[in-house]
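From the shared-data thread, chain only:
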Amino acid sequence: MKRIPTEADWLAAINGLGSAARTALARLNDLEQIYRRGLRAVACEYRPGALPSLLALLLMRPMVSPQTVADMLQFSVAGASKLIQRAVAAGMLVEITKRKTWKAFLPPDLAVHFGFASPRRGRPRLDPPALPADRNMAAALDAFDTEMAAIDRLLSSRSNAGGA
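Structure, as tokens:
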């Protein structure tokens, strides 16, 4: 490190920060897609059982195995394997190891991102937003979306004012 950074040093640091922020936003978008797809899968199940718990676990730890699910959700390994198979059938997870034992699973988006699965070809499907369970939840989500839009407008106006 230089004692007094030059303009080029500051520019490199800011560019690195911008790149890290874009990567983090992409990861956040992946997590939101995992959550929405999971909610849709849970809503389509006649008896979801422990799928909501698995969905919550996937948001905290996207790569899972039957052993980790058993440990985290306090199931037997056989019960965790059955739960994971239900999640695979619902499209929440894909197997990335292709073996009989010590299997590992990732959400489909992350499996494609890290090269464990091939991306879908053709035009991407538009996912409909998940429907909230009740009106109070819908109102809370609408209020949250409105607040986030206001924050986006505030940040974009500040960045435009700073650049002008």
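The beta strands are 94-95, 105-106.
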